[in-house]
């Protein structure tokens, strides 16, 4: 049952090994010349802007996008099994899936008209 | 390769046959809610309120009519087809289910009218923009602007659709989905009060957090029951109790946790902690909606779980119901005595009433089912009207809910005082009001099996009667305060709602027989 | 309660999972090497092609015709100094490039390179593994890749990377929706989500022909998904310096670079698998009987992948970058609704044909409904747009009390003084820009020629 996942695991091990090795080896292969300005944040040479710490680094707007994404991702997750089992489910499945998509579409229309998809 | 896969899988998938007509009320309400969302998206702001109200009322009335047409139905749906029994019979449309659906719809109709009341406050009782920071310049502007928010109508319809599924769900997973569908809009609606925004937001957050806990309890109980019975169908769990050889610990722990989740929704002590703060913080019409409709739906679900799934285990759960009923009545009555705010008093009274309703559930008889159904109906209308009355007595900064502000109200407005008196007497259970008939039938149904419990119930209703009568006495015999509150003249919507509430309260007190007959006729389960 | 078994769930795809472990290891190594080599190739290929499009030669110094340029660049990066900003969140900063690169490799594990061949005495499909939910693996890996970018932006603790990371996160999840929806129709046609099953379902007709709309949406959305021009807002060098990897250098930077190119190769390979017939030979070649057997299909597969990558490069060489709001607008307001309507239409046609409706009727009816569905909302949207503009204007009136910020505006009739006839050559001004320039070169010289 899980045998087909074994190659993915091996590839994962190989890729992780490669990535960790490359990232880990870098400090030893490269030169190290200390310079205070180099270790500062890069902001085109001007004095760096202080950064807010913690979750407030992300504006609320992005959370909104994330929620919309979850709504649609769940829709996709429901559509996939339906698409695969489409033949077996027949007309019943078609009616149900149209109802389902229509429901999400109503929410989509609401979000659109209320400016949830507008960016500035 | 593809053909192999399909051939292997095809036999397992078969389409269920759903009797759509029996579920029509739910579809109508859900459809109206979706239409409401579209209205929100498409109709210009000026006409939105009227259109939303029309959609809501038409949807609820249509669903109510369909529930009436369905009377006498005994069916479970979806019917099993082929070898696939998954979710078969998970909804059972029977007498109890239809009666409670009808009750929820009727109460929701009245509550929708209360929500749409626009004459007593600028705009409406619902805040125009709930996300504005309290105390900011925008917030101050909102209190004087007459902008209204109309999303509350679709939210309400979504909640109603959950309440329609909740009492007819024979499958615990579906019951959980219904629980969430009815809860999530309510969490939001609790935070929409136009006045006292901070209290309202606090209420919303409290309700959400505690509700999430309760949902977790419900789910955990569900999981344990599934471990015991290998099924989440209530009839299946019932059969498993006769046949399963597994440990009863799973069964009783599962039932206990399940009940915690359900009793929370019904605001039964000791799971009542959220009730008072949420009822006070939420906009008053929404409180009315929660106190009436949510209670009906929650007790419907408790009825079904206990009477369909666990009727053979009654010796094990009866002491629990005894305990929570007593706790609820005592907490409601005693803590209600100490309150000085009418909204809080009504909230505690709702906890006490939850205890009275539970008294009716200790006996598994047709009579007790009917008495519980009748009680939630009478209590629903009375409490709706009582909360509605709170909207009318106002100070400059909102509703005057302090008990002291109500003293001498009869001199200022005899009509308001009289109507409130009728409603309070009904809650106290004075004869010739619906509260009396409701209590009478519940206690009579429980008398044979649980005499002592009925005695305790009578005692605590006597205690509770004291604080109802205290309000009446204050309204009629105390001196009014110097700057007495104003009495707002309700618009047509609230007038209709309040009239309906009071008329039902009196009619069911004087002439309850037809409705009792209907409830007895409807007190059968299928599933 | 009997468990519902959907077609293909719970069963392994035949032919996978019963191989000796050494053969699996060889295949894993081959996939890894293929990806690294393809990355090196793709970088040179891109620089050469973009060079030609801009009337340049492109890299031509290292190796024959400059073909070893990217290898040399990679070597050079290994010996560059690694700079970690003092205030960076060290652990996350370190982790981000790994998180970015690993899923990129993993996504390729379910891509079929060819049919069953004989390898060291074993009959085995030219594919690392296959699952009944194969495409979901790719989908999952592409989602995980977002983490690397968001974390890198967050951990750097610097303005530009943060903005780049945020943009990129929003952009990738937005376009993932469109990408995911565009695959639904393919699963519908194939009846399975296993990649080998999808390829074998295209033996008569490539999916790109009946599902042209899905293909176009997929092609557009993967450009956004991989942060490539014209949708490379996450690393828009004119706005955000380097975007999320501004603060990265040395091999950590190389990891992001590697991940980006592997992602590009993966989505090209997935496009080939889902829409372009996978490893099947294109039409004139498919007349030859042996074209779809043995090791030849690997050639067709790689050819299709490179052709798709060429389109990526072509887009980059041709189109200017979109503005952020236009970009999100395209994803949310154009691709998603078209996709949903298209899926419903395809599904309806499919089901109605299955139920024995005549083909023309089954096609015309859903398409008619779809047209209605598009035209009516479009009209509504237009009407709504005007209404909203009016409402916004009304609201503006409401808010008129608020102070509008005023900006200093130069006088419109400003007379420009005539320039002096002779000027001294300017030398002093260049020094200020030197740091910025150096850094761009340090990071950017592998990106284009």
Query: Which structural category fits the helices and strands of chain C?
Result: mainly alpha
Helix content of chain C: 55-70%
Spatial strand sequence of the major β-sheet of chain B: 4-3-5
Based on secondary structure, the structural category of chain B is mainly alpha
Regarding quaternary structure, what we see is heterotrimer
> What shape does the CA trace of chain C take?
globular
Largest β-sheet summary of chain C: 2 strands, antiparallel
Give Rg of chain C in angstroms.
26 Å
End-to-end Cα distance of chain C, whole Å, is 63 Å
The main sheet of chain C orders its strands as 1-2
Name the helix and strand elements of chain B from N-terminus to C-terminus, one letter apiece: HHHEEHHHHHHHHHHHHEEHHHHEHH
Classify the helix fraction of chain B into a percent range: 55-70%
Specify the number of helices of chain C: 14
Structure description:
The complex is a heterotrimer of chains A (120), B (527) and C (449). Chain A has 120 residues and is mainly alpha-helical. Chain A has a single domain, classed as Methane Monooxygenase Hydroxylase, Chain G, domain 1. Chain A is built from four helices and no strands. In chain B, a hairpin with a 2-residue loop joins strand 3 and strand 4. The two termini of chain B are 43 Å apart. The N terminus of chain B is likely disordered. By secondary structure, chain C is mainly α. Among the domains of chain C are: 239 residues, no CATH class; 61 residues. In chain C, helix 1 packs parallel to helix 11 and helix 3 packs parallel to helix 9. Chains A and C meet through helix 1, helix 3 and helix 4 of A and helix 1, helix 3, helix 4, helix 5 and helix 9 of C.
